Amino acid sequence: MKTKERGSRYVRSLYELSQSVEERIPTFNRSLDRYFDAHFEAIIDEWQLLTDRDLRDLERRVDHVTEEIDRLYLHKSVLETQVAKLTEEITFFEGGEEE
Length: 99
Known about the structure:
2 domains
């Protein structure tokens, strides 16, 4: 049992050592990460990037416009039917002949 404990402690200390060394050595990726973390809002504004909130808002607006278009097509159909009936009645009252 003591051998397993020593082995796991060794692996744990080796892992901690590698993490410590990795944190001390600057890398391009970490430098970029820190830069983006510090300037995230400015980058989004400058590059005009969309956030999750913006995308949700756009999706909601597209859904609303789609509903309005469907509603307008329905009313267009109703209006076309009414226009056809009115045209028939006008033709009847004007003399009963269609052109």
